[in-house]
Amino acid sequence: MVLCLSAACLGALIGGLWFRQREKKTLKSLNHMLDEVTQGTFVPKRLDESLLSAVENRLAEYLDASMVSAQNLQAEKDAIKTLIGDISHQTKTPIANILLYTQLLAEQSLAPEGRTCAAALEEQAEKLRSLVEALVKTSRLETGVLVLHPVRAPLGVMLEGAVAQLRPKAAEQGVALTFQPTSEEACFDPKWTEEAVCNLLDNGVKYTPAGGEVAVKVVSYELFCRIDITDTGIGLAEEEQSKVFQRFYRAPAARDQEGVGIGLYLVRQIAVEQGGYVKVTSVQGEGSTFSLFLPR
Length: 296
Prior knowledge:
single chain; alpha+beta; 5-stranded mixed β-sheet; two-stranded antiparallel ribbon; 6 helices; extended
């Protein structure tokens, strides 16, 4: 009796060890498959059902399908990248030529109506160039073709560069452009963040009447730095403030101003791509403050 019980216990122990060894082998196989997928080296194999569980077969089928999906996605991304490059290349030269011939035309002896038409043609060509450039940039950001590279750097240098770019336009429109120097640092991509700030400054100058002011300052928090661009312009109605960062959205009060409604959308994309965000507070008729938050 005791001998039978001992044999049964020994059998159960051996069986348990065998099942545990088989389970360990299966888990190691699953882990190896996942490692291969992570490293991009997974190759579907014909599995022996007697050696591996049905779960392994299912996982292999799923990973095989995932690899195909990833390859298709990469192919689509490559196609979009090529399309964006083609659009950028194919439109750059014609637009530049239109602007060149428009300038040459304006230098000729023209009747007043002709000069008016030449000036309008140049203005529309510049608008088209800005639109194409903005669309190419946003498409590159959205598809991952263009990757931002945030680094910890002083904000002052970047902001001074952005303010310097907009000073001539502000002076031409009779708008005071002020910048409060700062020694704060944040984590951001200098080139693209400067472009975002330039877009915000351009908006502020554009919608501020002569005699008004656009001010730039930095506020520091524990986790973020906040760049405030405050203007004394036309402001936004409360129901419009949640829409201004949408692609091609233009507030009714801004319809008579030059623009295509993509600048603020690009600002949001740049902010999100580097772990930040942007928001606006505004009072219609009194002005707006656009705040760009960057991680420290």
